[in-house]
Amino acid sequence: MNHQEIIDTTVAFVKQELQDAEGGHDWWHIERVWHTARSIAAKEKADMLIVELGALLHDIADSKFHDGDENIGPAKATAFMQSIRLPDEVIAHIVNIIRHISFKGGNNEKVFHSPELAVVQDADRLDAIGAIGIARAFNYGGFKNRAIYDPAIQPNLQMTREEYKKNTAPTINHFYEKLLLLKDRMNTATGKEMAEERHTYMEGFLGQFYKEINI
Ligand code: ADP
Ligand code: NI
């Protein structure tokens, strides 16, 4: 298979796998991350096939939606890539990207680095901030039936996970817990630059949000 055939086959597989996914982790998230990753990779030194496959396959079975099982995604991706006879070293690299892309509050040991992971991770993080990031956060909160905000639980940057129960934390807290931190965690110069505008937009949103509810 040539590059285009590999990508077309992978797109079809991913669309199929994500048919019933929650709106923030559906095919359209993958498509955005894929396109963003491609444009970052065009400006950075990275292997385009690895970047594209990594972006397309990074969320096919998010552990959040599979009882915390972090092996389902890598296993499904491996079976698919073997079925289209990709070389073992490509498969191993993509599995590493899938396993290491997630932001886990900074406490997971980073044991794998590659320019391609850096690009795909930046693209995934960019999709978690800005207007799309705001939409995804509230969609995820709705999916989990969480409050939009709760004045009894004041969000701030110093707040730790122990300070509120994870499952009842209002969605607005997620901005302080994660989304506002992403700008400074971008890997590539291109990603950093793209994050600025989206970050400023989120700060504007939060300012307006509190203005409207007077807190
Ligand atoms: P990634 O898939 O990039 O590792 P996550 O799966 O944690 O990151 O998040 C994916 C999307 O779901 C993001 O847009 C994120 O903001 C949203 N999300 C994750 N956890 C929460 C939460 N507790 N509240 C609101 N949104 C969340
Ligand atoms: Ni993602």
UniProtKB/TrEMBL annotation:
PROSITE patterns: HD (PS51831). It comes from the Bacteria. Pfam families: HD. InterPro entries: HD/PDEase_dom (IPR003607), HD_domain (IPR006674). CDD domains: HDc (cd00077). SUPFAM superfamilies: HD-domain/PDEase-like (SSF109604). This is HD domain-containing protein.
